[in-house]
Amino acid sequence: MDTIIILLELTIPSIVVFLCSYFLIKKFIAEERQHQTNSSNELMKFFLENEKTKNNELRKIENAKITMPLRIQAYERLVLLLERISPESLLLRVQTPTMTAGLMHQELLITIRAEFEHNLSQQIYVSQAAWDSVKMAKDSLIRLVNEESQKVAAGAPAAALSEAILKAMVMQPTNPIVNALSVLKKDAENFM
User: Fold this and answer.
1) Among 53, 56, 76, 133, whose CB has the most other CB atoms within 10 angstroms?
2) What does pLDDT average to over the chain?
3) Separation CA 190–CA 63 (nearest Å)
4) Whole-number Cα distances in Å, 178 to 136, 141, 156, 184
5) Rounded to an integer, what distance in angstroms lies between the CA atom of residue 116 and that of residue 112?
């Protein structure tokens, strides 16, 4: 029996050491696998984020290829709008020899508003400052036409109203149309 006890005394600690070592090694291997999995996941996550960023950049470049011509066209159209509603151009287009000042006043307002409304969608493609300058130019011109039409009798010849508008435009310290054109040109230069 002594032999069995001695044998047990030698075997039990060996078994305990073996089991402890086994579980510690098993735990270490599991942690290493988890660490490798986490590293792989982080690497995969980094790779996917990098690919997503690349795709976003490529999409932006493709969008720019599409929107850049639209933006340039919008600036061109707004410049054309300002040129068309400038008093020098507008008065020549609207005025007829038999027209009265009252009728011309109405036609000027209708033409200015129609030109502006025709280009409303361009605001999507230009900066807020550019669009605001165009609106301000239109509003200033309408205000000038209304003020000058009050000074000229409605039955007077249209030429009298034309002359009053041109004189008032020259007397203004700043020309809102020229200012708006300047803003549009400067704005367009920033993205070209």
Assistant:
1) 133
2) 89
3) 18
4) 11, 12, 30, 10
5) 6
**How many whole angstroms separate alpha carbon 67 and alpha carbon 62?**
9
100 strand-pairing partners? 157
Which residue do the tokens 């510690």 mark?
24
Q: Angle between the 101-118 and 87-94 helix axes, to the nearest 10 degrees?
A: 120
Region for residue 52 given its phi and psi (left: phi exceeds 0; alpha: psi -120 to 50; beta: otherwise): alpha
Q: Give me the DSSP letters along 44-73.
A: HHHHHHHHHHHHHHHHHHHHHHHHHHHHHH
The amino acid occupying position 182 is S
String of DSSP letters for 132-163? HHHHHHHHHHHHHHHHHHHHS-TTSBHHHHHH
Burial (CB count within 10 angstroms: exposed 0-12, middle 13-18, buried 19+), residue 50: exposed
pLDDT number for residue 4: 79
Q: What's the predicted TM-score (pTM) here?
A: 0.69
pLDDT tens, residue by residue, 80-131:
999 999 999 999 999 998 999 999 999 999 999 999 999 999 999 999 999 9
Average pLDDT of span 123-144: 95
Six-digit token pair at 82? 């300002």
Q: How far apart are CA 31 and CA 25, in angstroms?
A: 10
Q: Is the dihedral of CA 79, 82, 83, 84 positive or negative?
A: positive
Mean pLDDT calculated for residue range 132-141: 96
> Between 158-171 and 101-118, two packed helices, what is the crossing angle to 10 degrees?
60
